[in-house]
Amino acid sequence: MRLNCLSCGYTIDMDNAYGDYDGQIKCVICKAVLNIKTEEGELKSTTVAKAGQLNSEKSIFSRA
Questions:
Q1: Which of 3, 9, 44, 49 could form a disulfide with 53 if both were Cys (CB 3.0 to 4.6 A apart)?
Q2: pTM to 2 decimals?
Q3: What is the pLDDT of residues 1-23, one digit of tens each?
Q4: Structural domain harbouring 47
């Protein structure tokens, strides 16, 4: 599965671990944090996280 960073447009490759996921990922290029939701391997929603929505650094996955 792939998605484009909403901040810089970089293509983020996501593995099968994100088949059913509701959380945050971080763009490795611009460091923007995205809220994503996937179901059955399909991207359902993506938004840029606002400052008050950021989870702890340990829970944000960086993907290249």
A1: 49
A2: 0.76
A3: 899 999 999 999 988 888 899 99
A4: 2-56
